[in-house]
Amino acid sequence: MPATHIRRWKTLALTTSAVLVGLTLPTMTATPASATTTAYDSTYYKNAVGKTGSSLKSSLHTIISSQTKISYSAVWNALMVTDQDPNNSNNVILLYSGTSRAKSLNGGDVGDWNREHVWAKS
Q: Which of 88, 117, 121, 122 has the smallest set of CB atoms within 10 Å of its CB?
């Protein structure tokens, strides 16, 4: 193969490699927001302490029975409240990355957050 063809091939290969590496690198994001938590309630599980089997299951059921259940489709609006960034009320905190993302950027487009990024369906 003539030297000119080799140089062209190397140039093309290096350019292609650079583009592919650039596409696979994670995009730069803002520093993850710091999470805030409420104080630990040491009495929350008190009725389940020391129990096993069906008695434990029954106690845990009683503890969580007052929780509000929402439909999967209603999760969008709920997450905008429950996962709101304490430092920016226009954003939510993503569960896996801790990144703060605009509430308006929800859906399926590139860069959007979705329910599975802040709250697992399963």
A: 122
